[in-house]
Specification:
The chain is of the alpha/beta class. The protein is built from 13 helices and twelve strands. Helices cover 36% and strands 19% of the residues. Helix 12 links the parallel strand 11 and strand 12.
Length: 332
């Protein structure tokens, strides 16, 4: 059986879509699974050992020069690649008009299916017009978790039930030599930055938590994704006793950073979810986004704190650190 998954973005959503691959292979072990994803996330999807081919999609970049010859040539190559195979099932788990169009481009075998979402979840960007490309539309509860949503679509399309914990099937990223920034001792990863300011946690809270980690001799490494986050990281590090601001990390190095952390603490953002997908000891901080949507609920190594409009306290995080790492041994 040949299966195509269309889930093009964003970082956290691509990660949360991965457990449907393990589900499919558990019930159809000989399935060959391909995936269409935005070019920025191609190497991330390649880390899923259940995916055969990753087909890059570059609409974000193509839109900037839609009528340029080079862009038209790339779009033509994408159309050719997506039609190389005839698929038994094509899944669109994003539910947008653009992803529905991609779904429609793919070739089907005789009696093949195009399966997608019949409705969106609360607060999602779902576009009902995407249903015109389906042969089967799968209804989900409006408060369905981001991981469960894709799993339910696959289960409905292939005729099985979701009855196991989420398995992300993520391999470690490979490097011939570890990047120079990788420390030779365990570290805590702070994912403090996120696109929406209201989802951030107060800077003083991060500083107080760093003091708790200093008692454990656990240095703090701070990641960042843009100039504002870089400035915020430097300001935080200046107030911490053992903290280091990382260089700008390419995608695979950012994944490595999350995957190697002895403890990850982060707001509702993609790299926090990657750490949780690797089942690292992770504390997810929800300040202004609904926890039910993306909380790490597949491992006891993940503790979720706060909720929309009710950020967690430093005390909450201190308790979670003790739960994940044990009590500090105080020498007398």
């Amino acid at each position: 059986m040949k299966i195509l998954i269309v889930r093009v973005s964003s970082l956290g959503d691509v990660v949360h879509n991965m457990p449907m691959v393990a589900d499919i292979l558990r019930h159809t072990p000989d399935a060959q699974i391909d995936w269409v994803v935005e070019e920025a996330y191609v190497n991330l999807v390649r880390l899923n050992k259940g995916v055969r081919h990753v087909i890059p999609y570059a609409l974000r970049r193509w839109r900037k020069s839609l009528f340029a010859p080079a862009t038209r040539a790339e779009m033509g190559e994408f159309h050719r690649r997506i039609r190389e195979e005839a698929y038994d099932v094509v899944f669109d788990t994003q539910g947008l008009l653009k992803t529905g169009i991609v779904m429609r481009m793919a070739r089907l075998v005789t009696n093949g299916q195009r399966v997608g979402l019949a409705n969106g979840t609360e607060g999602s960007g779902y576009e009902g017009a995407s249903r015109i490309f389906h042969t089967k539309s799968v209804p989900v509860d409006v408060r369905t978790h981001a991981v469960l949503r894709g799993r339910l679509v696959a289960a409905a399309g292939l005729g099985y039930r979701v009855d196991t914990p989420a398995d992300f099937m993520l391999q470690s990223p490979h490097f011939d030599a570890l990047p120079a920034w990788v420390p030779d001792r365990p570290y805590a990863a702070f994912f403090h930055g996120t696109a929406r300011a209201s989802k951030q946690w107060a800077p003083d809270n991060w500083v107080q938590v760093s003091r708790l980690l200093a008692e454990r001799q656990l240095p703090v490494l701070l990641a960042w994704g843009n100039d504002a986050e870089h400035d915020a990281a430097k300001a935080l590090a200046a107030q911490m006793s053992d903290a280091h601001v990382l260089p700008k990390l390419p995608m695979m190095e950012a994944v490595l950073f999350a995957q190697r952390a002895a403890l990850a603490i982060g707001v509702d953002t993609g790299l926090t979810h990657i750490a949780a997908a690797y089942n690292r000891p992770t504390i997810e901080l929800y300040c202004d986004s609904p926890r039910w949507k993306t909380e790490g609920n597949w491992s006891s190594n993940i503790i979720n704190l706060g909720d929309q409009g009710t950020p967690p306290s430093v005390s909450d995080v201190a308790t979670a650190i003790t739960s994940l790492l044990g009590r500090v041994n105080v020498r007398r």
